[in-house]
Amino acid sequence: MSAPNCLRGLVRPSATIPISAPRSAAPRAAPIGLARPAPFSTTALNARRQDPNQQGGGGKGHVRQGKKLKLGKFKKTAVESKGKPPLPGERRAYRKRITLSNDNAIPVPWLKDIGADGLANAQNIARVLALPEEVQDQLRASEAFKPTQCWGMFRKPSLLVRKESVDLMNRIQTSVDNKQTLRLVVTGDKVTGKSMMLLQAQAHAFLNNWIVIHVPEGQELTTACTEYAPIPNTDPVQYMQPVYILKLLQSIKRANEKILAKTYTMTGHPELPQNITPNTPLLALCNAAKEPDSAWPVFQALWNELTAHGTAANRPPILLSLDGLAHVMRVSDYRSPAFERIHSHDLALVRLFTDTLGGAVQFPAGGAVLAATSRNNAPRSPSMELSLAQREAEQAKREEVPQKDPFFRGYDDRVEAVLRSVQVIRLGGVSKLEARALMEYWAASGMLRATVDEKAVTEKWTLAGSGVLGEMERAALLTMRI
Amino acid sequence: MPPRLNIWSAYRALSVRTRAFAQATQPGPAAQTRGLADNTTSRFPPSASGALPPSMLPESEPLAYTSKENEAALNQLRMIEYGLSPLDPSVEGHKYGLPELPLPSQKHAKHRYDAVITQVTKLLMRDGKLAKAQRDMAMILNYLRTSPPPKLDPAKPLLPGAPPAHHLPLDPVLYLGLAIDSVAPLIRMRGFKGLAGGGKSLEVPMPLRARQRRRTAFQWILDVVNKRKSKGSGRNMFPHRVAEEIVAVVEGRSTVWDKRLQVHKAGTSNRANLTHSGIKGMI
């Protein structure tokens, strides 16, 4: 035996040690002891895991233990977050929270609270008025404030009384005086104050002790984000949304506590979980809904009581309002058991609203049904757009009323039936006088650091596309140039 | 070859005439009567001399045309006669007058924001989205306006001459600028390679300009912000984190103050290196 072969006998047998066999022997099969079975694995990852010594490939069989010097760039492993993750809904609540006061802002000395007819009085046009404390709480309970509005910048939440708001309040007041129901849609371009108009109407209603039922987002009803269930014994089948209705009942209760305590039931409601006898306060009726299961019957009972005609001496006027009309004027995202999409008007709460908007329900003591369109978050609803344009043209007594496109199939007859006879108010920019009143209020609060003169007002008014209120806020308040 | 630009080349175009120009013949009156093809009423032009016999000329002068504007114009003419300027350019013909000159820097499109705000906004920018950075900055300023006045820490003094804490929220631009300028380092350490012996670099403190100081300070703030956890969700997340850190800086709670102290200490301990022979003439 030659010397190199002897020495090799002392080496530990290993798979990867090259064998210095003579070249002639190379094509032959490897010795049995050194042969390795073919790796059996399903994936490349497992194949690699089977023989960790194979990594270096070729002749390097040895793997250094301990710390390795890493050359080149390596992907960092994701850092595990410390601390507990936020609870479900916590981040949304932080995003959606509403601040109504800023202690840094300077209190405005000449600011007065709105009186009972403050919003219907033409003398208050182009004046800024503050909301009384009590009404603030009521509006907060009915979710009239929105997080995108600039409430958190001023000492007290205040409103600019516009020409259109006085017009709207007068229309509502007239219909209440005549015990009729006003049916009206507020529409207009982006950030022109449509939701704010609904808020003003609600403030007017609260100040006059009416009952307010407000659906803050039509979207929440139809985008399939809340539970739904078919209502038994309905044909065609209608669907209730128990969780949402329970929430709505609670907000109605909180917002209208005083007036509901003074209004009494006319008939008994033995079908409810809590037996309601005649002459029970409606507040007690609202309290009967403790769980989502009983929410819809209770809501229906409350609605029947509020709209009961007959000895209607002590029924208060009602304001029913909804923001984001386009969402309830389309086919919803809910599915029927046959997996067909449910029309929004087959959802019971939406149907209740649309029936009232269409004129099928009359409030005993009068009132108003208001709806506002939205421009930022709205699905296309061709029928609604067409109907509103038609109503607008008819009210302005224009000669050309827009007609249906005969080659388009996307129209919805149910929507058109609802909007056949509503009134329409279109909002645009404010006048320069109103803009000036608003800017003076901003400056007096210390939020606008500029002299408010005709030049400044004209500048902001023009920048804001002829006085679009949201754009004026962007140009003067929410800017880098403060 | 380009033409030469000198005075001699201009002379080539010069020519001298020894005789006067030939007078062009005046067109006859008939030629002047040519009118438009559809104007059938063209007649001889009215000439001042002898178009009408003197007997037919009116005796008296025609009445001067009088109106308000005419009066004003006449007044202006009289003022010119007296050597006065009749037009006040800041009043006449302008609805809102003329702008005062020199124009204030805010009127210039590129300098419309405060200098610190402009710089910091561009540091906030990611992926070249300036409009988003500007919206974020607006939200930061808004947060500063609505947060309660900061409680100052006497151990971490702000710049001398800073207004009292309760003034700050009403002037958020000042608030932000004050926070950044107060934690901004005065110096940075510059390493000269191999001068300290043994291959080590020689650390020499160098002064920073105001813009550089602000940049360093805000980068430190952003480093801290990126490690913070955000509370809410949506587009307010990042700006609110930045604004919280700004408030923390003013209240003396931020770790950015430690970074500043560290740099300043290193500068003090290495200031002897300023006189090192190896860097003579390099600074």
Structure description:
- The complex is a heterodimer of chains A (482) and B (283).
- Chain A has 482 residues and is α/β, with parallel strands linked by helices.
- Chain A contains 18 helices and 12 strands.
- In chain A, strand 6 (229-230) and strand 7 (239-240) form a beta hairpin.
- Chain A starts with a helix and ends in a 6-residue tail after the last helix.
- The two termini of chain B are 48 Å apart.
- The model of chain B has no long low-confidence stretch (mean pLDDT 84).
- Chain B has a two-stranded antiparallel sheet with strand order 1-2.
- Chain B has 283 residues and is mainly alpha-helical.
- In chain B, strand 1 (187-197) and strand 2 (200-207) form a beta hairpin.
- Chain B contains 9 helices and 2 strands; from the N terminus they run H-H-H-H-H-H-E-E-H-H-H.
- Classes of the chains: A alpha/beta (482), B mainly alpha (283).
- At the A-B interface, helix 3 and helix 17 of A face helix 5 of B.
- Chain A: This is Small ribosomal subunit protein mS29.
- Chain A: It is found in: Mitochondrion.
- Chain A: One of its GO terms (molecular function) is structural constituent of ribosome.
- Chain A: Keywords: Mitochondrion, Ribonucleoprotein, Ribosomal protein, Transit peptide.
Helix content of chain B: 25-40%
Distance between the termini of chain B: 48 Å
Give the radius of gyration of chain A: 35 Å
Name the overall outline of chain A.
globular
Determine the number of helices of chain B (DSSP H or I, runs of at least 4 residues): 9
Strand fraction band of chain B? Answer: 5-15%
Instruction: Tell me which protein chains meet in the greatest interface and how many residues each side has.
Output: A-B, 25 and 28 residues
Label the structural class of chain A: alpha/beta
**What series of H and E elements makes up the topology of chain B?**
HHHHHHEEHHH
Question: Strand-residue fraction of chain A?
Answer: 5-15%
Strand order of the largest sheet of chain A: 5-8-11-4-12
In terms of structural class, how would the helical and strand content of chain B be classed? mainly alpha
**Quaternary form:** heterodimer
- What is the 3D shape of chain B? extended
Low-confidence stretches of chain A: 15-35, 54-58
Gap between N and C termini of chain A = 95 Å
- From the alpha carbons, calculate the radius of gyration of chain B and give it in angstroms: 38 Å
